[in-house]
């Protein structure tokens, strides 16, 4: 007989948390090793109990589910995280994906769906509530299109303009950029103007933020 999947539940709603604990305990292949009410407790308990899967509410006090997921995945890479979310939390679901969560299930999906997501996570497979699929795919398509557009913008920059942009992202003024790149301040100013025009931003601060957001630092 295979070992039971060890589950840690992190949910700040006491009524919902207790209901999930009781219902999951009826599943013969699952065992709830702990239940906590905030993200900080989830990290602490995970380090002690080493669960196979954490069922993590996306919004909790002290430390939210996204940040808790990021910490746990860093400290315990073998532990999988299934995010509990509600309909309309699309943006935070994408942040959870980046943090390392493997499953995403709506709170009102029912215990069968939640248990199924836990089982899938245990073997490293993703699980996504059907109600979220269309919205998630739509957002990924939008992000992919945006990334392609941004890559095209960056390819319009010359090598020297990229170097100047890196300096802008580091918070350097024209005089410092001039000294670092062995250019006159007039030339630096000209490059900055060209960068703003090509990236379609209004000022050097926006250009610096754009560069940081897209890894040009």
Structure description:
The protein has 217 residues and is of the alpha/beta class. It has 2 domains: 5-136, Rossmann fold; 156-213, Arc Repressor Mutant, subunit A, CATH 1.10.10. It contains 10 helices and 6 strands. The protein has a 6-stranded parallel beta sheet, with helices on both faces. Strand 1, helix 1 and strand 2 (30-36) form a beta-alpha-beta unit. Helix 2 (39-49) packs parallel to helix 3, helix 7 crosses helix 9 and helix 8 crosses helix 9. The longest helix has 26 residues, at 130-155. The model has no long low-confidence stretch (mean pLDDT 83).
Keywords for this structure?
Rossmann fold; alpha/beta; single chain; Arc Repressor Mutant, subunit A; 2 domains; 14% strand; six-stranded parallel beta sheet; 58% helix; 217 residues; 10 helices; 6 strands
């Amino acid at each position: 007989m295979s070992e039971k999947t060890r589950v840690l539940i992190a949910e700040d709603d006491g009524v919902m948390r207790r209901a999930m604990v009781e219902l999951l305990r009826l599943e013969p292949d699952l065992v709830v090793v702990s239940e906590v009410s905030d993200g900080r407790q989830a990290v602490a308990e995970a380090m002690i109990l080493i669960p196979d899967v954490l069922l993590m509410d996306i919004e909790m006090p002290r430390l939210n589910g996204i940040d808790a997921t990021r910490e746990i995945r860093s400290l315990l890479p073998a532990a999988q995280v299934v995010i509990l979310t509600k309909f309309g939390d699309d943006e935070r679901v994408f942040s959870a994906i980046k943090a390392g969560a493997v499953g995403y299930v709506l709170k009102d999906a029912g215990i069968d769906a939640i248990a199924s997501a836990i089982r899938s996570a245990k073997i490293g497979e993703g699980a996504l509530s059907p109600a979220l699929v269309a919205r998630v795919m739509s957002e990924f398509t939008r992000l992919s299109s945006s990334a392609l557009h941004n890559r095209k913008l960056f390819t319009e920059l010359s090598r020297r303009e990229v170097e100047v942009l890196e300096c802008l992202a580091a918070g350097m003024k024209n005089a410092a950029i001039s000294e670092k790149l062995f250019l006159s301040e007039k030339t630096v100013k000209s490059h900055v103007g060209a960068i703003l025009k090509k990236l379609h931003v209004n000022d050097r601060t926006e250009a610096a933020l754009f560069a940081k957001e897209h890894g040009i630092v």
